[in-house]
Amino acid sequence: QVQLVESGGGLVQPGGSLRLSCAASGSIFSINAMGWYRQAPGKQRELVAAITSGGSTNYADSVKGRFTISRDNAKNTVYLQMNSLKPEDTAVYYCNARLYLSGATQLADFGSWGQGTQVTVSS
Question: What span, in angstroms and rounded, lies between the C-alpha atoms of 9 and 19?
Answer without folding.
Answer: 7
